[in-house]
Design the sequence.
């Protein structure tokens, strides 16, 4: 068993190393020059859900040009900063597209400024980057951030408008932004593709998971989750036996911390997988296949599925698929064996006393109610007393009671 465990451990380490090397090579060499673009529909609040959405886009579509279709009133500065950093680290060319009648306000406007070009349709609006609450330090940071983004995109001559965008919360219409040289005016997406000499290879929208994370990212919801998580953990501590409250509380805290943009999405996925593993282990040591086992399998499956969705297609080679299938099969077999072993261990075995009651044997000596004799039962000799009268040697007897190593028997009449 130890040899098998060591072999599996080495195998797992090799798989992890291979995965890390593959990811490194993909990140290093996948950024190639291309005119293929992806339309990214960033039509949501700028929060944890938006961060998850952009992370997934960058991982699953590396090396593409991103056209951010922005239609958002903004959100949180920390989330906007993360989105900007994610796109910058990807090394991809970014274009902002505010469709006709659309709006890029507050944190959404800051994201638009981070792109190389900004295109606006008729009736669109951009601006209003003044943070709330109006902390002087935060205001100065936002102004410096906006100036830095303009300078990086070669628009250093426009840094003067930052004071209006932040201090005065000024917003600009399409015509006003174009007259300033901040944006370009187009009527539709096809005009952008023609102007940039691009081909559109796909459109990506926020998934249901991203929308759920967006809801969780609301400060009040995150704080309630954090509060409820702590309460559930305390209930688990002061409750006899494992009830699952602590695990549910820990998951709530992880979701809350992610909603507050304090944890990366990978930690969220890992927490779901580990929570599932804990529930499966609990199921192994408790009777029956019930809510813990089913919940554990579902949580782990969701965690693995979300991780798989965030893996770039280029990282999934045939070898990886084979290894995943093999490891999944082996793991499933181990879980099955574990359930069977746990079930066998939980099976109540009859005690020696329970095995003796009702058995038939014979008296090897005379046996009375007050003077013990010897009976042969269960392939052994036992000291026995009669429960009624004297039982002569050679008689058939039935065991009625057992106390320690003493049996109480009755004679079976022929």
Sequence:
């Amino acid at each position: 068993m130890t040899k098998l465990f060591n072999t599996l451990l080495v195998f797992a380490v090799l798989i992890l190393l291979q995965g890390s090397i593959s990811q490194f090579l993909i990140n290093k060499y996948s950024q190639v020059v291309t005119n293929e673009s992806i339309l990214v529909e960033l039509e949501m609040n700028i929060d944890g859900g938006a961060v998850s959405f952009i992370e997934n886009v960058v991982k699953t579509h590396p090396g593409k040009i991103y056209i951010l279709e922005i239609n958002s009133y903004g959100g949180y500065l920390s989330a906007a900063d993360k989105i900007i950093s994610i796109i910058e680290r990807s090394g991809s060319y970014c274009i902002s597209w505010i469709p006709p009648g659309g709006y890029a306000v507050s944190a959404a406007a800051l994201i638009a400024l981070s792109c190389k070009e900004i295109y606006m349709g008729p009736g669109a609006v951009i601006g209003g980057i003044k943070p709330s609450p109006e902390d002087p330090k935060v205001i100065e940071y936002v102004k410096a951030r906006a100036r830095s983004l303009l300078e990086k995109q070669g628009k250093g001559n426009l840094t003067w408008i930052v004071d209006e965008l932040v201090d005065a919360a000024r917003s600009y219409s399409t015509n006003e932004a174009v007259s300033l040289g901040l944006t370009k005016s187009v009527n539709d997406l096809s005009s952008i593709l023609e102007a940039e000499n691009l081909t559109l290879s796909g459109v990506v929208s926020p998934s249901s998971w991203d929308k759920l994370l967006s809801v969780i990212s609301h400060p009040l919801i995150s704080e309630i989750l954090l509060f409820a998580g702590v309460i559930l953990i305390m209930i688990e501590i002061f409750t006899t036996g494992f009830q699952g409250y602590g695990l549910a509380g820990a998951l709530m805290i992880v979701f809350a911390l992610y909603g507050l943009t304090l944890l990366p999405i990978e930690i969220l996925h890992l927490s779901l997988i580990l929570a599932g593993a804990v529930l499966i282990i609990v199921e192994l040591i408790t009777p029956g296949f019930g809510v813990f086992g089913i919940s554990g399998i579902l949580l782990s499956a969701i965690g693995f599925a979300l991780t798989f969705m965030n893996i770039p297609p280029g990282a999934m080679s045939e070898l990886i698929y084979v290894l995943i299938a093999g490891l999944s099969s082996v793991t499933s077999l181990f879980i099955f064996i574990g359930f069977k072993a746990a079930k066998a261990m939980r099976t109540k075995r009859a005690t020696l006393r329970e095995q003796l009651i009702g058995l038939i044997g014979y008296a090897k000596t005379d046996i009375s109610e007050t003077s013990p004799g010897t009976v042969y039962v269960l392939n052994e000799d036992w000291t026995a007393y009669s429960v009624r009268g004297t039982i002569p040697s050679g008689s058939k007897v039935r065991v009625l009671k057992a106390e320690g190593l003493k049996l109480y028997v009755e004679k079976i009449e022929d």
Remarks:
- The first strand starts at residue 36 and ends at 42.
- Residues 248 and 397 are 59 Å apart (CA to CA).
